[in-house]
Amino acid sequence: xEHALSPATLAxxxxxxxxxxxxxxxxxxxxxxxxxxxxxxxxxxxAEAKKQLETDPAVTRERRADVVRQLDQALAEVDLAHxxxxxxxxxxxxxxxxxxxxxxxxxxxxLSDTFxxxxxxxxxxxxxxxxVMSVSPDRVTLWSGGTERITEERAGGxxxxxxxxxxxxxxxxxxxxxxPSTFRDERTRQFLREADTAMGTLLRDHPRPLYVTGEPxxxxxLDEVGTTAKCAVHIQHGGLAHGTPEAVRxxxxxxxxAEARKETAAVTRELEAARGRKDFAAGVDEVWRSAREGxxxxxxxxxDYRATVRxxxxxxxxxxxxxxxxxREDIVDEIVEQCLxxxxxxxxxxxGTLGEMQGIAGVLRY
Length: 366
What we know:
Distance between the termini: 42 Å
Strand content: 15-25%
């Protein structure tokens, strides 16, 4: 199952396909007893997709058989023991993908000539993805993280390794003072230059906040020989280049929590200033209309805010019940995707932060 959504992957998912491109969405659950319903719901929603394929006169028999085969293959790949809060299956002639999301999705089936991506985009934004580069004299390890997980990322040339002198523990000797800093050695500094260049290349293709961990001498040397790390958050913690995901998570968590508090306070101040200038929108209807017009510069959404609405003659959104005819249960994800596509900064903030702003608010460009 897929987890990481890169710009290139998103572009590939959004490209037009031969009809039908089928998107199957269903909520999933991490724990008992709620997760006992997941297998039945998944089978039912896939059965509904097959039914729609069967009754759609625009789908030829050959393509129907192909897409049904892709759906069955995707279903066999789903591991419900390791799902999160939402599951998305994409199937089209000759291809299929399965995505696990750390954000709930409405149950639905969509047949179109493109895959439905708004839920992936919103889950990616809510997951606050980041990179961690852990530095040592003989290894530079890249970690990919989000709100739910940290894993080692083997991409872009990472991990970078080099052979040191036998029985040479540079980090230990640096800590206890056995020798001058190995990070003044030119071979080590060249190794760090290569890591800095590799990280810069990766960030251009996959931009995320960057944390760099290592001994103080390692962080100082990296700043001296390169440019990428100067824009990162430094965490003085050695040993993580050879560490575990859990050790990395523990090391960066206090820094992340402090950064998140500062970011939430800054967003709140910006919203209040915008309210005073009248370039402000709050509530799902106002923000939706502003997003459609490309006017939102900063979008703030409470982490667990959801709304079910329906379109009132194309001008306004009005509250609706789940399952109602024409109900739009993922309107928040739709707004998030629209704002990102028009260059807005999207921030998810803790529940209760927005108070009377009704869970969602925006600073407008004009």
